[in-house]
């Protein structure tokens, strides 16, 4: 398969040291996405236990009746639960990411930009960012920053850039196609090359990457399949 190679492949050692502006921007989006997902998962893990504690303490408070001293102790527990719940909500809000309005974006071109920034290749026929032909109907409705961060997460999950910076043993290949009905856009990311360092999928940050990418797919009526060296991101096409 003929493909377009990234100019990063020819930068040599300098590419391993200096990130270009696009790579720096994507890395920052990745960081913010992980912080937001961490806050959401933390709040989710505590929500049910806090609800149980609140229910039990409210029941005890009713059963104690006129025992004011014990009722006051129970109330302090309820106040603590309320404070913790409020703090969790504030933490999620302070780490908000990609919660803006969705708009039609050139998903193929955007994915190409991400892949090239990580030293990868783009299959022939995939437009670069900004080169999408007007009216070709290949746009999808997404939050732009959330989608870009999800693509970076997927590259990490298939082994690209997890054990190096800049020019790495594994580079991504992007292929784009539509489904048979022409209603959905399918982005396939493949990791080319071999690495002696397996992807540490057991690590908490990689678990968060997967959850964040799954969230983007789910919130945009898409599908996500992740394998050892490949990932497929499918999204419905935007129609006028």
TrEMBL record:
Its EC number is 2.7.13.3. It catalyses: ATP + protein L-histidine = ADP + protein N-phospho-L-histidine. Residues 1-23 are annotated as: Disordered. It is an enzyme of class 2 (transferase). It comes from the Bacteria. InterPro entries: HisK_dim/P_dom. One of its GO terms (molecular function) is phosphorelay sensor kinase activity. This is histidine kinase. It comes from Halochromatium glycolicum. The lineage of its organism: Bacteria, Pseudomonadati, Pseudomonadota, Gammaproteobacteria, Chromatiales.
């Amino acid at each position: 398969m003929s493909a377009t190679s990234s100019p990063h492949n020819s930068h040599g050692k300098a590419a391993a040291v200096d990130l270009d502006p696009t790579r720096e921007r994507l890395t920052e989006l990745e960081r913010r996405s992980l912080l937001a997902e961490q806050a959401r998962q933390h709040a989710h893990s505590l929500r049910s236990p806090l609800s149980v504690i609140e229910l039990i303490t409210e029941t005890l408070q009713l059963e104690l009746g006129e025992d004011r001293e014990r009722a006051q102790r129970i109330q302090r527990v309820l106040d603590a639960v309320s404070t913790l719940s409020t703090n969790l909500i504030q933490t999620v809000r302070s780490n908000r990411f990609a919660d803006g309005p969705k708009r039609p974006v050139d998903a193929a071109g955007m994915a190409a930009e991400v892949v090239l920034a990580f030293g990868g290749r783009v299959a022939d026929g995939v437009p670069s960012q900004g080169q999408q032909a007007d009216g070709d109907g290949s746009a999808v409705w997404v939050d732009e920053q959330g989608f870009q961060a999800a693509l970076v997460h997927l590259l990490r999950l298939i082994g690209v850039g997890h054990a190096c910076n800049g020019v790495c043993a594994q580079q991504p290949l992007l292929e784009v196609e539509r489904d048979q009905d022409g209603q959905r856009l399918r982005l396939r990311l493949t990791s080319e090359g071999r690495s002696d360092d397996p992807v540490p999928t057991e690590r908490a940050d990689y678990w968060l990457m997967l959850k964040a990418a799954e969230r983007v797919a789910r919130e945009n009526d898409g599908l996500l399949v992740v394998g050892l060296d490949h990932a497929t991101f499918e999204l419905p096409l935007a129609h006028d």
